[in-house]
Each structure stands twice: as C-alpha cells, then as structure tokens.
Amino acid sequence: MANIDDLFKKPLLPSKRKSEPLRDASTLYKSAKVDANGDVSSNRAIAVEDDFDEQDEVGPELPPDFNPDEDIPDDEEGRFFGGGISRDTAGALDFVEKLDQGDPGPEKIDSAWLRRLAVNFEKRISKNAELRAKFENEPQKFMASEADLDADIKSLSILSEHPDLYEEFASLGCVGSLVSLLSHENTDIAIDAIEILGELTDEDVEAEQEEWDFLVTAMVDGDVIALLSQNLARLDEDNDADRAGVYHVMSVLENLASQLPVAEKIGQDTDMIAWLKNRIQKKEKPVTQNKQFAAEILAILVQSSTENRQRLIEKDMVDVLLQLLSVYRKVDPEKDSDEEEYVENLFNCLTCLVDEDEGKSKFIDAEGVELAQIMLREGKMSKSRALRVLNHSVCGKGGAPVCERLVNAAVLSTIFGMFMKKQDHRSIEHLLGIFSSLLRLLPGDSSSRIRTLAKFMEKDYEKIKKLIKLRREYASKVSAVDQVIDQERKPMSSDEQELMASEWLSRRLDAGLFCLQNIDVILAWLVAEDDGAKAKIKSLLLEQDEDLGVIKATLQEQMNDLDETSADELDTREMLGTLLQFL
Question: Residues in domain Beta-catenin-like protein 1 N-terminal (predicted)?
Fold first, then answer.
C-alpha cells in the first residue's frame, strides 16, 4: 500500500514561488513509445504491399517547370492557402463558439468567488477530519480526501494577487481554518498551509497596510506563532520535504516580524527562541540556508524591540554569539555564501544586544572586549564588524565599565593605530564614537582616563592634527549641503519647511554631520582637559581663519536638537552645556 506521506512530497529547495517540476527526457520518450499495456506504439500506418512498382507514375504528367522544393508564399488575399478570413475574425468566431459550447472563460476573482471557495474549503477540512477519525487505521479510505484538501490549500495562492479580499477572507473564518491546518497530522498538509501563509504575507504582495493587518491579526488570533513553533519541533531536516517546511516556517516568521507588535509576540514564545538559539549553533559544513535564516530571524527580532533584546540576553545569547563568532577571528567565510550572511547576522545580533546595559555586562563577562581586540588586529571581514560592536558597547551610561576594560585590555593602541591609517567612512564614524565615549565616561582622575588623554597628546599631537583635518573635510561637505537646503527653504512656507525637516536632516547626516559633531565634542573635551591641547587646537583652526567659535556653534546646534523628555538626552544636554563653558 502506498505511504500517505508520499502523496505530498516537496522539492528539495523551497522558494517563495513554486517552479514547475523538471521532467526526465528519457521518461517522456518512453511514455510516447509504450502504451498502457506495455506494447510498443507506432504512429506509422501498417504497410500494405501494392502490386505496382514504387517508381511507376500514375496520373497526368507534372508540368516541366514544377519544383517540389520551391518555397511558394501564400497569396496576399489568403484565398487558396488561408482560411479566407482575417486573424481577428477567426478569434471572434472562436470566442462565439466557446460561448455556444458553454465555456464561461476565466473565472472572476471577487467576493462571490471567495464565498464559494470558503464554503468548499471548509467542507474539505470537515470531510478529511471526519474520515480520518472514522478510519484512523485505514489510511487508504481518507487518502483521496487528503489529496483534495491539499489541492484546495494550494489553490489559495491566487489570493496573494488579490489582497483586497484579505479582509473578507479573514471575516469568513478561512484564515483561522488555514492556520488550524498547521496542526494537521500529515506534516505535508501542514507545510502546504505554512507555505500559503508565507505567500499571502510576502513583502512583494501589493497589499495596503490595513489589508495586511486584517490578515495577520486573524493569523495571530488563530495562535499561528505557537503552531509554527510546534512545527519547527516536529519537522526533521534530514528529510527533504521537512527541510523545505522549516524554511517556509521561517519565511512566515520573517514576514510577521516586520511589524513591531507581532515581532514582540514571537520573542515571547520561549520554545521558538530556544529552537532558533539551538539552530544557529548546529554544526554544519557548509552552513546551510536554514541555519543562516535562523540567524537572520534572531537579528530581526533583536532589532525590533528592547523587550526582545532583554529576553535573549537572559538566555545567555551574548556568550553564545561570541563563541560562534570566535571561529571567524582570523578566518573569513567564503565570499557571497550563506555562511558569510550567517556571520553578518551574528554580528548584527551582538551589536543590538550590547546596546543594552545588561548586554554590556554580559559582553565584559564573556571576554568580548578581548575577542574584539584580536579581530581588530588579525581579522579581515571581522575587523570592521568588531569595531562596530565595540562602539555600541561603550556608548550610554552603562558603557563606563566597558571603557575601563577596553583601556585595561590594551585596546587603546590598536584603535588609535587604526585611526592614524586610512579608513572608510563607517570605520571613522565608529572610532570617533569610541573616543567620544571614552572621554565622556571614564572617571576624571582615573588612570584609564589619563592614559586615554595621553594618546591624544603623544607624538606632537598627531591625533589632534588628524581630527582637525577630518573636521575640515566633514565641515566642507555639510556646508555644501546646507547651502542647497537654504536655497530650497527660501520659497517654502513654514508648514512646507516642517514637512521637509526630516529629509534635510537625513541629507546632512549623509554628508557627515554626525562625524562632525563627534569630532567637535572630542575637541571640546581636549580643550577642557589640557592647556597644551587647547593651544594646539586654536593654532590649527587659525590656519583656516577659524577659532573655537566654530566648535561652539556645532555643540550649540546639537544641544538645541536634543529631546528634553529623554533621560539619556538630558544627560547629553548637561555634558554639552558644561563643554560650552570651556569654549
């Protein structure tokens, strides 16, 4: 007897849209040559022996100028070689003939169609459930209903082209019914349902936000997250169909996590988080698509909310990530591979986690600063990522202990050495961020602060010279953008200017405003801390007919843009106010 699971097998590699199965050429050939009884078929007629010679001619003699190989074109009127009617007329006649034969043409996808589909879909589910319960140990008696149900599930794919029907699809209860099939005894039925949910929620579907919300709300109400988690637990990736099913589960999670409330609900599912955590640690060579996808889902979740970050920190995710990344401290993953994307997602996760104070503490305990030091010295791909992680780990109030560890681990010489070499814009931004945090957070009379200040003063203030050089470059770029913005602002009303404010800020940031602000904060700290540094900064600014007033203007603008309701920004405002007094 055929195994019921064999009726619903999937292709090895999943995709958002299904492709037609490949067919073996030899199979097609054999099917054309052998009939149902196994007899060889032939298209040739049975040969009949004639009682005259093949070369005997019968009928009138052909004209002498006849050439059978000559290509004779149809006459323009189509009277002899055509049908005597135009192509358009023939098409019209075919259409009339189809109407006469009762062919209604393509079915209209509308509310009436959806209601018919809903009734039929519910009947299929009920019939299959009834037959399964009645003939539990006789699968041959419910196999046909299972095949019908499978076909109906797949037919729902067309709804992704009609998102205007999502609201009614949900109100008819079909979304809940589709979600319920994730718990079907036949995993192939469950996988089909998961794949359809992925197609309906795919980012490529041209659905309005309201339409998407109706669909997803119904899915969440149907407990889709818990059911997806249960399927991850029961699917075996050693099986091709199940491996594809795992991919489809994560596709749905990726789609759902694009909205913050749903992303937080996913993060609350402890079984889901445990599965993702275990999946990224599974040893594989090479790294598979599903392992990479699991890391990507985690990265999406931790980027979405503080709550998700806190939950993962509590699960010792910082330590897990550092262990996984330690493999790449000196060795790079293969370029443009799943492994490279996997490593990128691990770094993204770690960067988000060390933004939290608890994450910073875990980062210190797991010797994250020391690992970052190795990557900065010997890494290739990992170097710039480790620098970004360090920058995020030292920022904010909770960054003070990380700053202390950074100095004690002899990372100062490494990062200042990098600063004096040519770096890309992103690396410069992270280095400036680290310098700014060190000067802001290290205690006033501590040895670590003194060592940091000494780095700026050594070798005839070469780091300060580099800071002033960078300041000129960024100030020039920001000034050019400001001039364009000023021209755009002149003819605008105050309301129009308010609408453009965010875009203008974005353009200024792209030009290097953030780096310029960080440089001026660093220079202001140095002016406040050391008279020799103050004199050097003033002399370097004077070379361009500038004075400390340009630094003061930057800090004042930065302070004016701060949100007074935020605790962190209130601290920043207080710091900037203090620095302004020294300028």
Answer: 88-194
Last residue of a domain, one of 230, 248, 266: 248
**CA-to-CA distance for 82 and 80, rounded, in angstroms?**
6
Pairwise CA distance, residues 205 & 190, whole Å:
22
pLDDT digits (tens, 9 = 90+) for 362-388: 999 999 999 999 999 998 999 999 999
Q: Which two three-digit tokens encode residue 366? A: 């797991």
Residue 287 lies in a domain: no
Distance CA 548, CA 542 (A): 9
Q: Which of 447, 446, 468 is nearest to 523 (CA)?
A: 468
What's the pLDDT band for 29 if we cut at 50, 70, 90? Answer: very low
Predicted confidence band of residue 79 (pLDDT cuts 50, 70, 90): very low
Instruction: Say if residues 111 and 167 touch (Cβ distance below 8 Å).
Output: no
Is the pTM here over 0.85, yes or no? no
At 483, is the pLDDT very low, low, confident or very high (cuts 50, 70, 90)? very high
With a CB cutoff of 8 Å and minimum separation 6, the contacts of 360 are 354, 393, 398, 399, 401, 402
Band of the pLDDT at 10, cuts 50, 70, 90? very low
Per-residue pLDDT, averaged over 419-443, amounts to 95
Helix axis angle for 209-221 and 260-268, nearest 10°, is 20
Q: Please say whether the beta carbons of 541 and 550 come within 8 A.
A: yes
Q: Is the dihedral of CA 332, 334, 336, 338 positive or negative?
A: negative
Q: Is 40 exposed, middle or buried (0-12, 13-18, 19+ CB in 10 A)?
A: exposed
Number of domains in the chain: 2
Does 467 map to a domain?
no
Give residue 221's domain range. Answer: 108-248
Which residues, at least 6 apart from 419, have a Cβ–Cβ distance to it below 8 Å? 428, 431, 435, 463, 466
Q: How far is CA 279 from CA 138, 237, 276, 458, in A?
A: 36, 11, 5, 49
Is residue 271 situated within a structural domain? no
Reported as a single tens digit per residue, the pLDDT across 282-313 is: 999 899 999 999 999 999 999 999 999 999 99
Asked if residue 222 belongs to a domain, the reply is: yes
